[in-house]
Amino acid sequence: MTFQLELKKLKRTGFFPAILGGGAIAALFPLLNTAARPEMFTGQPLPALDILMNANGQMIIMLNLCLAAIGACILYHTEFSGNAIQKMESLPVSAGKLFFDKTVILMIALLAALVIEHIALAFCALYWFPEQSGLFTALFKNLEYTFALMIPPCIILMIFSSLCRNMWITLGAGVICIFTVSVLPTDNRILSFFPFSLPFQTLAGAEDSTWIFATLAGCAAEIVLTVLAEAILLKVRRRYA
To answer: What is the pLDDT of residues 118-139, one digit of tens each?
Structure first.
């Protein structure tokens, strides 16, 4: 019931148009990039998806993380405006369930954006590259991998949003975390487990299956840790708010 209520709250916030519109903008990037200089990509002796992700993946992921930050701001801004969250503290509503529902909504919206982007990648691969065997299997695996690695930063952004009344603080913290990735050494495997670095570890760029498993294991560990951290923070906030 609370999940449907959360969806109703978002009807006039522009949440879904913002996320889906941002996904469409991100999807345009590989289309325009490949159309502008097709000979630069089609001559490479690599699978089409690997070429497209190497050329466009960084920008697409950066836009997705920005969308996650914007979405997180919108989701909790509806609670802090008019002191609604303080009123909910006196009701038999679980703050943890509220956080879970909002996070699921954010992840579903981002998954929809990722699907739009992968449709654009599929079009590029089919239009500009010769016949590719196993293209759709590779696209599906890449979608799964990218979505899994987006979960830890999304949870962290939702934690920021649940703690900060001012949505600009959440947005600023998210932008700082996103752009921190650009100053981290790219060849340091330990730093690649920084939550906001994880989404940039593309399946096409993974060296072997062992590293893919290690990345997913690190992602799962970060999900558990961030969920536990949020549970503790919610209890602290409820006691001292």
So the answer is: 999 999 999 888 777 788 888 9
- pLDDT tens profile 54-73: 889 889 999 999 999 999 98
- Amino acid identity of residue 40, one-letter, is M
Phi, psi (deg, nearest 5) at residue 48: -55, -45
Give the separation between CA 222 and CA 218, rounded to whole angstroms.
Answer: 6
Kindly list the distances between the CA atom of residue 164 and the CA atoms of 7, 22, 159, 213, 228, in Å, as whole numbers in the listed order.
Answer: 21, 24, 9, 35, 18
Amino acid identity for residue 66 in this structure: C
Q: Shortest CA distance to 13 belongs to which of 64, 66, 65, 80? A: 80
Integer Cα distance of 29 and 24 in angstroms:
9
Spatial distance between the Cα atoms of 15 and 74, rounded to a whole number of angstroms? 7
Q: Is 0.85 topped by the overall pTM? A: yes
Q: CA–CA separation, 212 vs 163, rounded Å?
A: 33
**What's the burial of 124, exposed, middle or buried (CB within 10 Å: 0-12/13-18/19+)?**
buried
Q: Determine the Cα–Cα distance for residues 15 and 13; give it in Å rounded to an integer.
A: 5
In angstroms, the CA 98 to CA 117 distance is 29
C-alpha angle 63-101-140 in degrees, rounded to nearest 5:
50
How many residues does this entry show for the chain? 241
Which residues does 64 contact at the CB level (< 8 Å), separation at least 6? 22, 23, 26, 110, 113, 114, 117, 150, 199
Burial bucket for residue 1 (CB in 10 Å: 0-12, 13-18, 19+)? exposed
